[in-house]
């Protein structure tokens, strides 16, 4: 292990322990920028959170997430479903999208229903993932037909929304394909990159955001 790998390991460990209650139970190994996470957490959302934390550390090339979700084998699918439905009703988007369909088989969750934008799908998946006993979440959520726009109109909406947040549009490239927005180009820092994604995900008619944004190198 070189010194850079050790720095990456320490940065990930520090972030995990500062931002996650279960971070102390997660182990980190890094070799040439390739990170392996392993350990035990209580929910799928914690496993996903750990991966995002690792991916956002400078120098990380790839993350292999081998974290195990702890289950005692006594949680039944019907109990998992009940917990997911309760979480979904607490979602900030519940009044907009209403009750979603939920199927659970051996801890594998499938979500059905209609959403208006990518942010609502992400939130629904996250609410399901916070439920004890969930091993994985499969989304079969579909965009409401009323929200569907042609690609040119959707790009115009994205440009208008990003402009309000003072993001540097000349350095961003925005394309649309059947509701999928691809963002590329450059921003100044990780905060702007995250903001751009969140802004676009919240636009009605956006089914998914593909993030190819790069951080501008500082001179």
Give a brief rundown of this model.
By secondary structure, the chain is of the alpha/beta class. The chain contains seven helices and nine strands.
User: Judging by the overall fold, what is the CATH architecture of the largest domain?
Assistant: 2-Layer Sandwich
The structural domain count equals 3
Helix and strand element order: HEEHEHHEEHEHEEHE
Give the amount of beta strand, in percent: 25-35%
Low-confidence stretches: none
Number of strands: 9
The share of residues in helices is 25-40%
Text of the CATH class of the largest domain: Alpha Beta
Task: Based on Cα principal axes, name the global outline.
Answer: flat
The largest β sheet comes out as: 3 strands, mixed
| Backbone CA Rg | 19 Å
**Termini, distance in Å?**
29 Å
CATH topology of the largest domain: Histidine-containing Protein, Chain: A
How many helical elements?
7
Spatial strand sequence of the major β-sheet: 1-2-3
Mean pLDDT: 89
Q: What structural category do the secondary elements indicate?
A: alpha/beta
